[in-house]
Amino acid sequence: MKLFALTALPLLVISGLFNPLAAEVRSTAENQSELSLTIYNGGRALVRDSRQLKLPAETNRVALMDVAEKIMPQTVAIEGLDVLEQNYDFDLLSPASLVQKNIGKKVRLARRSNETGETMEWSEGTILSTNGGIILKMADGSLESLQQANNYHMVFDDIPQNLRTSPTLSLLLKQATQGQKNIELTYLTTGLNWQSDYVLQLNDEENLASLDSWITLNNDSGISYNDAHLQLLAGDVNMQQPQMMRTMMEDNVKMRATMSTAVSQQALHGYHLYSIPHKTTINDKQSKQIKLFANKNIPVYKRLEDKSYVNSHGLDPEKSKPDQFLIFKNTKPELGIPLPQGTIRVYAKDTSGNKQFIGEDAIQHTAINEQLEIKLGKAFDISVERMTRKFHQLSKKQTQLSREIKVNNGSKLSQTVNISEIMPTQSWQIKNSSQPFSSPAPSMAEFTLTIAPLTELLVTYEVTISYP
User: Fold this and answer.
1) Which of 53, 154, 189, 396 gives a 20 to 30 Å CA spacing to 16?
2) C-alpha to C-alpha distance for 263 and 200, rounded to whole angstroms
3) What is the CATH number of domain 2-93+162-189?
């Protein structure tokens, strides 16, 4: 018998045998001989579940339980069994589903005392509806509506065949078989994701840094993965390429055989595959962090940038604060590692030697020899004020502007600021500039200014802009 209570805390007590499919052989996570995961950035994972089955008699139905609740059934592949048909049963046993599946069937009703909790009365009825509450037709022909606040129990004789206690793959074999079977179940599931989190710590001179990388795993797939081999694939995988996925699955198996004692990585079909050397357990509804690498003495430098679009007609002053960037290159020998996308957080020491958080930024997948520019925030002590002093319409397609840029350094240290003026077109010419400039892009003029402590620097120039 099964006892089901709709009270403030629903209770399900099962006594007796549950055997919905007498001829079915069931396999659980206890039968796993090996479990491997490859988790992708896009919220999917490839599960390779190897199991040992003992079929005691001629069997043509096998239930593989403890698969991911968010499995993608169309991606399932099974080796070791000759399968004719497979079904994913995800209608799980719960108080609500048990009542729903028994609509039209007779149940027994036990009323309890609010004071003692003892059963005071037994009755029998047929469930007619669960819309907004449970409606039963009693043995005497009357209708009774039961609400969740009522203190009662409904007693069921068994669990319906199409309800499972965990997500299950039901297999119909082409022919009955028996004996020891080694099978491998492979499938894709959603609900598993990973990202990289980086911690960068500056030295006292702020010219060298240490970089630690952590992998953050999130499991919302509906099951736990115990003692699993773990691999992480960095890159944007197009999941509509089944041939590529099959090739990657084969390469993943080969990679497992050559794992080292440290996290290893290899290029794989335009992506990067990271292999964790030790087995790990990822529980359902869990976030887990694993160390990827730690590197020291990475050369870094700061850069202050302030960019503005040149307004041909506006004469109002424009005030801003420069952006602070921390810049380093992903090169050997200090680094030189393919860096998965993630968030990098930067720390520096104050005058007392205490670490302080000074900013964070997202990085994209970064190959070896690429440069990283980490935006920390706005510079507090530096202010920039721009103004167009004069505007002349030389012709329908040509204008002339007189610009003024005032940079104030309110700190007690000398500061270098890169001031960028972005022109409306690529056809422009500066003359009468008070400071030298460069043109790193076709529509940009850049002034690199070094301002003494507690001083102000004024930049003036004239520019002629031609429109197509």
Assistant:
1) 53
2) 19
3) 2.60.40
